[in-house]
Every structure is written in structure tokens, then in C-alpha cells.
Amino acid sequence: MAQGWKCSGLSWSADGPVLRWDGGRQSALTRGKRVAFGVAEGGVRTCVGARGHACPARAAVSGRSTGARCEECARLDRAHSVAADTLTDDPRPYRVYLAWFGPGMVKVGITAHQRGSARLLEQGAVCFSWLGTGPLMAARRTEELLRAALSVPDRIPYGAKRAVRSALPGSAGERAAELAGLHARAVALGGWPDSLERAPYRPVDHVEIFGLAALPAALGEVSELVAGGSVGGRLRAAAGPDLHLETEGGEVVVLDTRLMTGWELVPAAGVDISVPVREFKEAVGVQDGLF
Q1: Which of 6, 19, 82, 12 is nearest to 47 (CA)?
Q2: pTM (global) more than 0.85
Q3: Do strands 26-28 and 220-222 pair parallel, antiparallel, or not at all (unpaired)?
Q4: For residue 286, is pLDDT > 50?
């Protein structure tokens, strides 16, 4: 019987994306690498738990869920969360940023200073610039100020990000043009908290690390994994949690790696994609590792 693996998510560093597995193993995801795995026959996707603790009920969760948590574990995971505004006394410094994902898609957000640009890589930001650094609540107030004054959101749907990755402007300057204008408007605003130190405009571009240059338009995206199904393809690009995989037939399909968590995955070789794929409306021994 093939050895089973449990994926614990995709993480980013300056060296690129890495898939993490329960037990501490990692798989570096280099462009051109063959990514192939199957879902165990008869398998059921189970809740991944919350805040480092296993789900006590080992509850079954939907194959379409990107969180892979039952209702109770999802509630616990968001407790004391900066994103959910339930954590207000974190003493660490925070950074405010503007991030660009494609034409007309700019968001404002905050991230802990110690995380560097990891949050931007995890979100699939094509380019970004810091706006300032300060205490958590000052950063949060600044984020709210900019959302209201600049009419920019704090979230961009992943579907919208995926739809434009193969049609981005060709130069870093073009990609950062919207950021430059919004950054200038942001720093000219009054009402910034005194405790937040403003940052100069210095755009950072992620097209090269993501592999988005000359990226073919994707046929569609994996909507869910299913027991007995398989995924296989050559890695063309990775952005945020998404892998753009080229199949044997030359088509590109996007896999959100968050759909992998909670399943028992097994090695597979020479497979294409036999799990449900949602097409885009427009063209856009004991192994050392699973692959």
C-alpha cells in the first residue's frame, strides 16, 4: 500500500514556495518541476484543527473549503486573530502596505513587521509598497483611513487575481503605476496616527519569483479534490497559494493548494487531472517526499 501524506500548506520565503507536510517534511516547488499526487481511495477530508491542535471530533469537511476546518475549529482559529479584529493588545510593530494584483485591483493591509514580505507573497501580490510602521492599533486605524479616503478594499478575491495573471503589463514600471499614484495620495492625507512612521515609496515586484512572465492563460481551476482522484502537471508558475500546472495536453489548470489540506494524499506518476475543474468563462520504498 502506498504511503499516505498529509499536506499542511504552502509557505513562501525569498527562495520561493515550499509545500509543507505533517511531520516536518517539505517539498520545494521549482518551476518546471513535475507535481503529481493522488487522493487515497475511499478517503474522507477531515478538519485540520485550530491553532496547532487537532480537531477533537475529526469532523468531515467539504472538499471545496479552502480553510479545511469544521465550524467549531474555524471559530477557535479566528479567536485572538488580527485579521478578525479580536487581537488588540499585540505589542509587536506592524506595517501598513498597498498591494497590486492586476489592473484596478489594489488593496490596503497590515502585517507584522517581523514577517517581512511573507504576507504579500502568500496573498499573491504582484507588486507592493510599504506605507508605514507602528503599533498594531495605529496600523489598523491607518488601514481604515486609507480604505475610506482612497476607496480601496482590504481584500481581493482569489478568483479575480487568477483571471488576470496571464495578461499583466510587461514592465515593472507599468505594473507599479497604480501603486505610485495611490501611495502619493495616501501620504498626502491628514489624520494619520502620530505613532505610525511613514515609509517612502519603494515598489517591490514579484513577477519573477512567481514565474508570471509569459504565463499561458489557464483553462480553469480545480474546484475540489475527491477520493480516488489525481492531479498532475508541470509547474509553470506559483503565486500565493496557487500552482499553475501544465497538463500533458498543454492546458494550464490552477490548483489552490489550500484544497489539499485535510486529505490523505498518495504518490502518483504520469497522471493528469481527474478531479473536478471549473473552467474559466474566458481564456485566462518509504519515499523522501510525496513528489
Answers
A1: 6
A2: yes
A3: unpaired
A4: no
Give how far the C-alpha of residue 82 lies from the chain's centroid of Cα atoms, to the nearest Å. 17
Per-residue pLDDT for 17 more than 80?
A: yes
- Phi-psi label, residue 77: left if phi above 0, alpha if psi -120 to 50, beta otherwise: alpha
Cell of 191: 489624520
pLDDT digits (tens, 9 = 90+) for 274-283: 999 999 875 4
36, 269 in Cβ contact below 8 A?
yes
Sign of CA pseudo-dihedral 286, 263, 81, 95:
positive
The amino acid occupying position 286 is: V
Give the integer Cα–Cα distance in Å for 135 and 126: 26
User: What is the Cα–Cα distance from 251 to 10, expressed in whole angstroms?
Assistant: 23
Helix and strand totals (H; E) in the chain: 7, 15
SS3 at position 114: helix
As a whole number of angstroms, the distance between CA 158 and CA 241 comes to 9
Reference 160, options 222, 108, 106; nearest CA is 106
Cβ pair 172, 205 in contact under 8 A: yes
Beta pairing class for 220-222 and 34-39: unpaired
Neighbours of 26 (CB within 10 A): 12
pLDDT greater at residue 78 or residue 151: 151
| Cα distance between residue 247 and residue 252, in whole Å | 6
